[in-house]
């Protein structure tokens, strides 16, 4: 592993890591209010490692949802990682299976966004850079969630502090940064077509599907439109 590239990726991940501190603390507090222990939230962060899925898990645990419901919900929420991982394989071509599993296992919306931002400036991104990007965020998230869970026992109602909105706020910030990057190399008309296809699809699909499924299918449609109009 190239240590210089690893630390370069780690530095690129620092803004994400800082964001993970606040979101992770919020996730831990919400988990504690749902009756989950620091050990349980820590293990969830290690093996599931998905903020939106962990927030959903805490809510479902509080509602005493069945194991089947928990499994299906987490699967659907994390299904978007399949799309991100498929795109990442086009950036890191010819890498070993071990390297691919290492990158894909720790890939998140945020580290994917950092990767896309880096790709705007250079095309020769190494796997060592990506490992640095992923690992710093991963370790920060685990520590923040565990600490948040320990603190959470002293906060009876996390929604009164707006902590339930923390993840939404972070996704809005990620979308804004990725859109800024896209505007540098993709025509505004194409971006409008992609976003329009997602919006229109979602509005129609909510008539026949649940909101979560409508979001998933509309995202897939938007990705399909993006591939079809890509000239590269």
From TrEMBL:
Keywords assigned by UniProt, alphabetized: Cell membrane, Membrane, Transmembrane, Transmembrane helix, Transport
A Pfam family of this chain: AzlC
Compartments in which it is found: Cell membrane
Coiled coil: none
Keyword Transmembrane helix: yes
A Gene Ontology cellular-component term: plasma membrane
Protein name in UniProt: Branched-chain amino acid transporter AzlC
Gene source species: Streptococcus pluranimalium
């Amino acid at each position: 592993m190239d240590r210089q590239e690893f630390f370069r990726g780690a530095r690129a991940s620092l803004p994400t890591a800082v964001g993970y501190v606040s979101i992770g603390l919020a996730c831990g507090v919400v988990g504690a209010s749902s009756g989950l222990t620091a050990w349980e939230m820590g293990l969830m962060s290690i093996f599931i490692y998905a903020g939106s899925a962990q927030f959903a898990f805490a809510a479902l645990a509080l509602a005493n949802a069945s194991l089947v419901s928990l499994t299906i919900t987490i699967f659907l929420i994390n299904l978007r990682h399949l799309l991100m991982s498929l795109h990442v394989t086009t950036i890191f071509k010819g890498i070993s299976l071990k390297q691919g599993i290492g990158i894909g296992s720790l890939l998140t919306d945020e580290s994917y966004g950092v990767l896309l931002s880096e790709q705007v400036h250079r095309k020769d991104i190494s796997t060592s850079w990506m490992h640095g990007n992923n690992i710093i965020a991963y370790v920060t998230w685990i520590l923040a969630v565990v600490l948040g869970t320990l603190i959470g026992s002293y906060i009876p109602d996390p929604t009164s502090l707006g902590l339930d909105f923390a993840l939404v706020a972070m996704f809005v910030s990620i979308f804004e940064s990725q859109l800024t990057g896209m505007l540098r190399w993709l025509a505004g008309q194409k971006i409008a077509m992609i976003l329009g296809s997602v919006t229109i699809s979602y509005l129609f699909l909510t008539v026949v599907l649940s909101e979560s499924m409508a979001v998933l299918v509309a995202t897939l449609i938007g990705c399909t439109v993006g591939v079809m109009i890509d000239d590269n």
